[in-house]
């Protein structure tokens, strides 16, 4: 079966940190809005935090980010580019956060406090997971690079990170 095609843009994986930074900023904006009781702003900033966290993962692991018409395309792209035992549950978390976008921005009713708190909590969990996936991968690659250049500069061997962290490669 051929994987579904999604509209993407190629992005240098070095830019993943930019998307991760944006995710953190959107989450902090959501937290600030929560203190003020601005529940629509809480919801919309939580959605943007989750989208930016997903973009950080896609840029790092796949060198792409979604430019499709639906934010839900990012879930399919994550499945194509990331190997992780928790991916299914994290995609469900992301989908739930994304469901708050229409409510926060377009519907003719306001986001309730409970909905805003839920959106922020789920976006935080997704961002924490994204950070953990990026930190382990980057640490493993740094270790591999260090070993190649410092310890075994003239020795041929397999990349250490694929043995130390097989679940994320």
CATH topology: Four Helix Bundle (Hemerythrin (Met), subunit A)
DSSP helix count?
A: 7
What is the CATH class? Mainly Alpha
**Average pLDDT rating:** 86
CATH architecture: Up-down Bundle
Low-confidence stretches: 165-169
Shape: globular
Cα Rg: 18 Å
Describe this entry's structure for a reader.
- This protein is mostly helical and 169 residues long.
- It has one domain: Nucleotidyltransferases  domain 2 (Four Helix Bundle (Hemerythrin (Met), subunit A), Up-down Bundle), CATH 1.20.120.330.
- The chain contains 7 helices and 2 strands, in the order βααβααααα.
- A two-stranded antiparallel sheet has the order 1-2.
- The longest helix is centred in the last third of the chain and has 39 residues, at 113-151.
Task: Map the helices and strands.
Elements: E1 8-10, H1 16-36, H2 39-62, E2 64-66, H3 73-81, H4 87-98, H5 100-105, H6 113-151, H7 161-164
Antiparallel strand pairs: 1-2
Keywords:
mainly alpha, 7 helices, two-stranded antiparallel sheet, Four Helix Bundle (Hemerythrin (Met), subunit A), 169 residues, globular, disordered C terminus
Quick overview of this protein structure:
The chain contains 7 helices and 2 strands. Helix content is 68%, strand content 4%. It has helices at residues 16-36, 39-62, 73-81, 87-98, 100-105, 113-151, 161-164; strands at 8-10, 64-66.
């Amino acid at each position: 079966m051929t994987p579904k095609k999604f509209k993407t843009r190629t992005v240098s994986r070095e830019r993943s940190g930019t998307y991760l930074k944006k995710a953190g900023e959107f989450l902090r904006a959501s937290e600030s809005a929560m203190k003020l009781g601005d529940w629509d702003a809480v919801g919309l900033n939580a959605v943007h935090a989750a989208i930016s966290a997903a973009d950080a993962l896609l840029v790092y692991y796949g060198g792409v980010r979604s430019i499709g018409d639906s934010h839900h395309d990012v879930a399919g792209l994550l499945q194509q580019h990331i190997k992780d035992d928790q991916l299914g549950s994290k995609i469900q978390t992301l989908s739930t956060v994304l469901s708050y976008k229409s409510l926060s921005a377009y519907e003719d009713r306001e986001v309730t406090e409970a909905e805003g708190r839920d959106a922020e909590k789920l976006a935080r969990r997704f961002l924490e997971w994204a950070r953990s996936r990026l930190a382990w991968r980057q640490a493993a690659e740094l270790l591999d690079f260090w070993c190649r250049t410092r310890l075994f500069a003239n020795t041929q061997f397999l990349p250490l990170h694929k043995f130390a962290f097989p679940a994320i490669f």
